[in-house]
Write a structure and sequence with these properties.
419 residues; alpha+beta; BirA Bifunctional Protein, domain 2; Rossmann fold; 8-stranded mixed β-sheet; 16 strands; 38% helix; elongated; binds zinc ion
Length: 419
């Protein structure tokens, strides 16, 4: 095929069956949000570039290598949103949400754009859902978002494995950083090229590097540097979620790839995904609003990729298989159309022939696409009745037009239960 007419590398077309599964997840996310009182926020697909460079941090892969940035005709530097948290922080500040009663609970579901190396389950345009809780510095806020994450994953049959860590605060992180830098200096020549470059400026990122895992394992543990407040915060978060039956494991090497995290960071894994097992991740980002023009506000949250969640949940998420009725036309006439609209009036998904098929061909089509077929027209019609057939169980009946919708609905429902 001529390359001009192929979709851009790393993007995807979502066809109806997968789109139905995506839609199922969207409804799940919004119902979990509702249960915990999170309101939906929508921000623009693009922002001024500074929101992400300053908000996410220009030492990150997202900002350095993966941005889709452009200058528009008015000379404004813009970037397609690569992640949701910095954009929501910008909106929080700009719309004065700090004046709202605390805490402010927000969630989003939106496309993100990153020029990543294409790999399984990663797309350059992908959808993310995220939960953001603003205004509370308390460990209970961290615990709540972890419970939200658990409930979300339970909705698709996943039992999450939760890893947590604390990156400390402005009091204790500098000591840890210095110890890390000293440690990596010692191992300088053994680090991968990227890490040799960034070890001094951004030593936490080396802990994230897959190539330098062995060296990272011997690195100083931040737990030995936590101040009293950070240690108490971490202990309280772990105790609160354990209280609710969610077991979490502390992972010393967990740092997450973004600059804005403060204290708590966490990742939720699913073993069925193998090496790329992270389903969602998040943490606390108390200083983020100050990076995008506001006063510092305590905040905690998480985000996850929809495609990842689809992969992890697999076939536990139903596809497009909505049970449908099919109305076949008997003989010449337009009775089938009238009956189909009648069923749709009763909210029953219904298809009708558009291909000028014979009755026999319509019946064949019905058996492929529907669970119940209605025959409209002919002698029965004259008597004010229509024939109904269950395509899975083979049952037949002749009912008056007025009672048709009830019969079709009952048969469709019974067919569902039998599956
Ligand atoms: Zn601290
Ligand atoms: Zn490395």
């Amino acid at each position: 095929m001529d390359e001009r007419w192929q979709r851009p590398r790393g993007t995807q077309d979502i066809l109806p069956d997968d789109a139905a599964r995506v839609e199922y997840l969207r409804r799940l996310v919004s119902s979990v949000a509702q249960l915990y009182g999170y309101g939906r926020i929508e921000t623009p697909v693009f922002e001024q570039t500074a929101v992400f460079v300053d908000g996410v941090g220009d030492g990150t892969d997202i900002v350095q290598h993966e941005r889709y940035s452009f200058v528009d005709a008015g000379g404004v530097a813009l970037t397609l949103r690569p992640e949701g948290t910095a954009a929501v922080a910008r909106a929080y500040v700009e719309n004065g949400l700090s004046a709202w009663p605390k805490p402010v609970r927000l969630y989003y579901w939106a496309p993100m754009f990153r020029r990543e190396r294409p790999q399984k389950g990663r797309y350059r345009q992908h959808q993310q859902y995220g939960f953001e809780l603003y205004g509370s510095p308390e460990p209970s806020a961290d615990a709540e978002v972890l419970l939200v994450a658990r409930r979300l994953l339970a909705g698709v049959g996943l039992v999450p494995q939760v890893l947590v860590n604390s990156l400390g605060c402005e009091v204790c992180r500098p000591g840890y950083r210095a110890a890390l830098v000293a440690y990596f200096e010692k191992h300088g020549p053994d680090l991968c090229e990227d890490c040799q470059r960034r070890a001094a400026a951004n030593p936490l990122r080396v802990l994230d590097c897959k190539q330098d895992r062995t060296i990272a394992q011997g690195a100083p543990d931040i737990a030995d540097f936590w101040c009293v407040a950070c240690r108490a915060h971490q202990d309280a978060v772990m105790a609160l979620v354990a209280d609710q039956g969610l077991s979490v494991v502390r992972e010393p090497s967990l740092v997450r790839g973004l600059d804005y995290y403060y204290r708590t960071v966490f990742e939720v894994h699913d073993s069925s995904l193998g090496a790329q097992s992270t389903v969602l991740g998040g943490g606390r980002y108390d200083g983020l609003t100050a990076r995008v023009g506001g006063a510092p506000v305590p905040a905690v949250g998480f985000a996850g990729g929809v495609e990842r969640l689809l992969m992890a949940a697999g076939r536990r998420i139903p596809g497009e298989g909505v049970p449908r009725a099919y109305v076949a036309q008997v003989g010449p006439g337009r009775e089938a159309w009238r009956v189909a609209e009648l069923l749709r009036d009763a909210a029953i998904p219904t298809e009708v022939d558009l291909m000028a098929r014979s009755l026999k061909a319509q019946m064949k089509e019905a058996s492929r696409r529907a669970a119940v077929v209605v025959l409209a027209g002919g002698q029965e019609w004259e008597a004010g009745r229509v024939a109904v057939r269950g395509l899975r169980d083979g049952r037949e009946s002749e009912v008056p037009l007025g009672g048709l919708a009830d019969v079709v609905r009952t048969w469709l429902d019974e067919g569902q239960e039998g599956e």
